[in-house]
Design goal:
The complex is a heterodimer of chains A (362) and B (318). Chain A is of the alpha/beta class and 362 residues long. Chain A has an 8-stranded mixed β-sheet with strand order 6-7-8-3-9-10-12-11, with helices on both faces. In chain A, strands 2-1-4-5 form a 4-stranded antiparallel β-sheet. In chain A, a hairpin with a 2-residue loop joins strand 11 and strand 12. In chain A, helix 4 crosses helix 5 and helix 4 packs parallel to helix 7. Chain B has a domain of 72 residues. In chain B, helix 4 crosses helix 5. The chains are: A alpha/beta (362), B alpha/beta (318). Chains A and B meet through helix 7, helix 8, helix 9, helix 10 and helix 11 of A and helix 6, helix 7 and helix 9 of B.
Chain lengths: 362, 318
């Protein structure tokens, strides 16, 4: 996928803040998230449960559960228009047509009481105003594109008659039926088996390439990120702590959290090599520490880390990390040069300097 | 130490409102033979519906096999008397996937952990309380945690409680059914390392059931790959990884996504889905999806054989 970094981005999110007002206090689920996404690009939003990935996605389409949850600040510019300023009726025309979503569990996102034909047809009928034969043709076309075999007989079937992998393809067919410009995929393969996951990701990539859709992919699996993402945003406690191209994040992770995450993952190719643990727990979003939220879990913290959230440090063009200890000069010059020249695509040149030992990948 | 011979487990399939006669049999497990030796870790991998969890349930005597035998220290479990059964339950313990549903929210942690201890053993309350504190410390929790309730702990700590409960009876054998799948990525390493340390300290044997190949590889010394109720391959873990024999093993390993962007893998993407366990395909169960299927694969079921020393598979290619 080519990155059109000079052209206008399709989606610009600026300082998005979504808070939940509960009896326990204010939970800052999303607290100042900014990123951009170009047409045809895949941005992976990575982080652990409770870090704000899903709430970020829901905020983009204004589906945050109210009244507890409220978007309290920021802008979401989609094709130049601020989605946060749109009326409810206008938003309904955006959802499903311009921005579509695929959720984690197709068993719960599909209605068990309606046939597949009805469910795919509903979106097309509402947004494309198609009826009768043209509606049917369009529905079949979108199912076939997602490789649902014998689609014309399958139209009359109910979700329980499909396997897990097929259900996820059906809900993707619904999402892509109106040719959206942005697809938000929230852990789309978590409920699928590995061989089915491989099928699904290949198909998603193929459909994306042919339709030029921008994909915002939410996941906690770095294997999926490595396989299909162009850029990565690592979230922790409601904020993006590091963002860069996939190669930058894997080769030169600059935030201690990203580095720790990459080292604590068991990977088949690493065998029985001892895993480096991250101590402690993810923080309580209602009681965030004053400084950097990762500090209680990081043994090498500095005094400043506990007092103020760090600003973005530019590590390389397009690669930023929010860490007081991150600095481009901490990385060996040779690897920086090589990356700028585009010479390093795969693992090989890890950031040395202040960075701890890199993960071993054969 | 623990040996299953030709284990089968069929469940009666009831369709809709039918009462009485079953409409067919779901062949969850169809002739599986495995051994687990003292102190070793057997990893069982496979996709959902392959029969991994049914096998675990047989090991735990939660289900009786339809056919075949499960032997413990040479004795058939169906011939167990009360004493044998007590000894078995003490020696074989389990840790389940989701520590949010496997711990009773209305019991104190101390009571949860003490529950597997036999009531009639004559152990005084003080002895039991001391043992509970000991295992809590062993799994990395505070000794006083017993007074709290499960909701006061995070997911990773809850899984530690579940492990403490499994260890309280001095078992020799733990069945771990997806022990880290429900946990956050940053917590998984803590639990995997804990399991590794406990195994070394207590000389435990593990059966780890997982769809996460990386987690299985991290702990397992031997690996068993299941497909549609049958074993397709068993062998020493590293050997299976570096040189898979069965085409399904090969496809399963290649479907795992490496932590490396731009890695051009030889990925074998399988077409189709896992077969219906009520009506599995004739011959080799994998043949409709197999990229290397031969003509005889559709007719004749491959035999289970030792292809190389310590490497077993059921495939016509060998």
């Amino acid at each position: 996928m080519t990155r059109a970094s000079d052209s206008t981005p399709l989606l610009v999110v600026e300082d998005l803040k979504t808070h939940f007002f509960t009896r326990r206090g204010v939970t800052k689920a999303v607290d100042g998230v900014s990123f951009t996404l170009h047409a045809g690009e895949t941005l992976a939003l990575v982080g652990e449960s409770g870090c704000g990935k899903s709430v970020t996605c829901l905020s983009l389409v204004r589906l945050v559960p109210e009244p507890a949850g409220r978007i309290v600040g920021g802008r979401v510019l989609f094709d130049g228009q601020d989605l946060l300023q749109k009326s409810r009726a206008e938003m309904r025309r955006v959802r499903g047509k311009q921005i579509a979503m695929v959720l984690q569990d197709p068993m719960t996102s599909l209605n068990p009481a309606l046939t597949i034909g009805t469910q795919v047809g509903e979106v097309v009928r509402l947004h494309q105003r198609l009826r009768g034969d043209s509606l049917r043709r369009r529905v079949l076309e979108s199912l076939r594109r997602l490789r649902i075999s014998a689609a014309d007989t399958r139209l009359a079937h109910y979700p329980h008659q499909f396997s897990g992998g097929m259900r996820q393809r059906v809900s993707s067919a619904i999402a892509l039926s109106c040719a959206p410009r942005l697809l938000i995929a929230d852990e789309p393969t978590t409920s699928l088996d590995v061989t089915i996951q491989a099928q699904y990701l290949d198909l998603l990539k193929e459909v994306q390439a042919s339709a030029g859709v921008a994909v915002l992919l939410v996941t906690h699996d770095f294997g999926i990120v490595a396989a299909i993402a162009d850029r990565v945003a690592v979230m922790y406690a409601g904020r993006i702590v590091e963002m860069g191209s996939t190669a930058q994040i894997f080769d030169r992770p600059s935030h201690p959290y990203t580095r720790a995450l990459l080292r604590c993952l068991p990977a088949a190719e690493r065998g029985r090599q001892t895993l480096v643990e991250i101590g402690g727990q993810p923080p309580d979003l209602a009681r965030l520490p004053a400084g950097c939220p990762f500090v209680p879990r990081w043994p090498e913290r500095q005094p400043i880390c506990e007092t103020k959230f760090p600003p973005a440090v530019t590590m390389a063009p397009g690669h930023e990390a929010h860490c007081w200890t991150a600095a481009p000069e901490n990385l060996p010059a040779i690897s920086t040069r090589a990356i700028e020249a585009g010479a390093i695509e795969t693992v090989g040149g890890y950031g040395g300097g202040a960075a701890p030992a890199p993960p071993h990948v054969d | 130490m623990l040996e299953g011979v030709g284990l089968k487990k069929y469940f009666a399939a009831k369709s809709g409102f039918a009462v009485g006669r079953p409409g067919g049999w779901i062949k969850a497990l169809d002739g599986v033979s495995v051994q687990v030796a003292e102190g070793e870790t057997l990893g069982i991998v496979g996709e959902s519906g392959s029969g991994k969890t049914t096998l675990a349930k047989l090991f735990l005597l939660l289900e009786r096999p339809t056919a075949g035998a499960l032997r413990f220290d040479g004795k058939d479990t169906t011939a167990f008397d009360r004493e044998d059964l007590k000894r078995y339950r003490r020696s074989v313990q389990a840790v389940f996937q989701d520590p949010y549903s496997s711990l009773n929210p209305r019991m104190r942690v101390g009571d949860i952990v003490a529950e597997p201890l036999p009531r009639d053993a004559g152990a005084s309350r003080a002895v039991v309380a001391e043992r509970v504190r000991e295992v809590l410390q062993l799994v990395g929790l505070r000794r006083e945690s017993g007074a709290l309730y499960p909701h006061e702990f995070s997911g990773g700590q809850r899984q530690r409680i579940a492990i403490a409960r499994a260890l309280v009876t001095y078992p020799k054998f733990l069945v771990l059914d997806e022990p880290v799948s429900a946990l956050d990525v940053s917590i998984r390493a803590q639990i995997l390392n804990l399991l590794k340390r406990l195994q070394a300290e207590l000389a435990l044997a593990y059966v780890i059931i997982s769809h996460d190949l990386a987690a299985a590889r991290y702990l397992a010394t031997r690996l068993a790959v299941m497909y549609a109720g049958k074993l397709v391959e068993v062998g020493e873990c590293d050997a299976v990884y570096t040189e898979p024999l069965h085409p399904y093993t090969e496809a399963l390993l290649s479907a795992a996504l490496p932590l490396q962007p731009g890695a051009r893998r030889q990925r074998i993407v399988l077409s189709g889905e896992v077969p219906n366990p009520m009506n599995p395909p004739e011959g080799c169960r994998f043949h409709p999806r197999c990229p290397r299927a031969l003509a005889q694969c559709a007719r004749q079921e491959p035999e289970w054989k030792e292809v190389k020393p310590g490497r077993f598979t059921a495939c016509h290619l060998y």
